[in-house]
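Structure record:
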Amino acid sequence: MNHPQFDFAFVADLPTTPVAAKKRTAGRKAVPGSAPASEPALAPTLADVGQITAIGAPIAADLESMACALGAHPDYRVVRRLQPRLHWPPATGAKVCRVAVLDTETTGLDSSKEKIIELALLLLDIDMETGLPAGEVQVYDALEDPGIPISKEIEGITGISNAMVKGQRLDDDRIEALLADVDLVIAHNAGFDRPFAEARIPRFRQLAWACSFADIGWKEQGRSSAKLESLVLDMGWFYDAHRAEMDCHALLAILAVPLPKLAHTGLAHLITQASKPSYRLQATNAPFDAKDLLKARGYRWSAEQKVWHTRLGDAVALQAEFDWLKEHAYHQRAAVVQFEKLDSCVRYSSRPGELLLHQL
């Protein structure tokens, strides 16, 4: 059976052949002029495969057939190296959305103190009829000298050293040109990447953003984790993580696949979500005895603002949360709560959205 995503065939059943145990005869002597006794053939080992590869024998087809056979057997799972895809069929519909898939590597987590050391972009069109990439994928990937030392910890995570970035700089004009016709920027942790990108390239402040980590309910889609490496592994791939360009290719690969519980791709879902406002709701002046309920509900405590808060994906969820707060947190008492309306041009940035009040 051919798989539409991976373009390889699965073998229906893995044949099994019993191998007789090799017999040994103590004290057996060779008879002059006689043919050597036949021995049962042994399966090739990894060492054999390595030796065959070393002498240049064509074994790719054999390895592929072995992988397909193993993948069809219930006791095995085949994980393949992710191959970046730069060419897609042309759009079937008239409407496309231009997106930039982005990833950054930085000297640390705090965007007010740390700096970008690598920035990668994939620029491509999304066919709005199919939710799939269309046409050619443009790639930009460059290192930058942050002007501060790269710690051993960051070098260990990214593989980027001080020597590698020395004298390097992002091409501002090239990035600005690539972003000129972009409708949406997608990052797997936009709350991290966006402040860094905006601080370095002003054009990013003017664009809509979506977060494939937060804007897709991966657990609802049957995934065990929303981490990029885990999602890629669930799809049967592995890749060299924590370099910006390969992280972008990995993200595009998982978003180009239909979501298990929905009828469209992750790309289509993010484009739709980006067109809607989201909300940050504060449990303003909530009673102290409600803290455990709020925490269990998924609210987070802001030490700076001294308030419990949560994010809601749409207006329906916001109204449902108003009702829950009134009944469970405020015990039907009159209260006014503050919420923030966030569109995709400020969502995941450090800038505030529209601040509003609501009477419970």
User: Anything to note?
Assistant: The chain has three domains: 1-17+45-77, 87-274, 278-359. The two ends are 57 Å apart (CA to CA).
